[in-house]
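Recall the central idea of this unit: under ordinary conditions, the amino acid sequence of a chain determines the structure it adopts. In this exercise we apply that idea directly, starting from the sequence alone.
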Amino acid sequence: MKPNEIISQPPHRSDPERSPRRGLLTGMRIRKKLIFLHTAFSVALATVLIVALRPAIAEIVNRAELAEARALAQMIVASGGAPVEVPPGVFIAQGSAAMLAVSDADADAAFREPGRPVDSAGDGGEPRVAVAVGGPDGGDLLTIGVRIDEARSAVTRLYILTVVALVAVYVLVAISLEVFVLPQQVYGPIRRMQRADLAVREGRTDEELVPEQVIPADELGQIMRSRNESIRTIREKEHELSRALIELERVAGDLKRKNHLLEAARRNLADADRLASLGMMSAGIAHELNTPLAVLKGLVERLNAEPSAGTSVSEAALMLRVVGRLERLSESLLDFARVRPPSSRPITFRAVVEEAATLVRLDRDARDVTIDNRVGADLVVECDPDRMVQVFVNLLRNSTDAVRTRLASAPEPPGTIVVDAQSRDRDGEAWATITIRDNGPGIDPAVLSTLFEPFVSTRLDARGTGLGLAVSEGIVRKHGGLLVASNLPDRQGAQMEVLLPVRASTENREIPGSDMLTGET
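Accordingly, the structure predicted from this sequence is:
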């Protein structure tokens, strides 16, 4: 690198809106700027000096030439017209004012005082004097002009010496700046900062700070100290960040281990819940099977002991009812375990509710319970109508049985079941909410949280298997919806809400617990 060369850096690409305006000196290096500036200053100073001195020096030369012209005019006047030796550089002319191009004012002044020289400029502006020759009433004018070549040559030499002196001063100033001032006070500090910045970019941390002993006490020194403080602050922040990252990695490792432990515990808990649910289902199935099997066992043992006795009509009817209950239990288990996606198509939902209500009226002979279908005829939902009828049959059956249970102890008010529906938007998707409200005794709060689990039943007769709500909840979820159970205020009845997307969901949602019956995992 040359002694005064400054390390070059790649151009920095910045925001055009924030970049400074470009001018004549913007793209120049510092040395070129300085050379250009003090050269321009020197040329401007020389021009100003020459322009300022030229009128004064010209005035001095003109006055000297006029003084010589006056002296010569007085000699001519004193000689009375005798011949006078004309030295070189003297111009004498005689004639009228018009012929000599003397102004009227100068001619009048000369004729008023004959023999007295009057200053008068020639056609080219050269200095001369005019003298009246003759009386005041008339006569000729005598013009005398003197050109002192030595004075004019001296003026030219003065101009040349001034220019040479200015050039010499410029050269001395430039040499002084380039040799003694700028390398130590400007170029050196800039190179040190550039080398330190290069060390920062290359990762040489031992060279990224400018040594304190070479930092000057001027503005560049302030910039260097500010830069050093910025670098130290950055390094401190990097060390803090490094320590934070190490701590974060340690915490992340601990969290990962804890997540593994938690996942293992979750799997163990899921297996435990699975086994518990399977045990509960097994116990429920065994409980549901024991009663009808005990009846059948008693009748079969009696037939085996006395074959000739046969069975009575009542015993045959009892066996038929027992077999029917076992059949219903088997069908419910199959419905609960069945996993198949719904076959959805646009359906007028009022017709679904009306068909389910008709089936419940026939099945339950519910003459004392009014089922009021208030679902609008304009509500169209994409669903599997057969499976959705099954859902509402189960819900309406439960509501009908609950209302009839209440009517057995309290005939008033009359038993009513109201089915209503409304549409709303959730997250930009259209949903339908179908609500079933009854004025029965409500749902026992103890079983409300587990109402949709298999073999949870609040019925006190032998008609329920405990699988209806579980199957219904699975069908609704298979449609991408939600089944919610709650009590009306003050236990004035129960409410079941079926939330369904108006457009069928493409997701295949399995019914919980089906894997326990089918062996799928």
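The mean pLDDT is 76.
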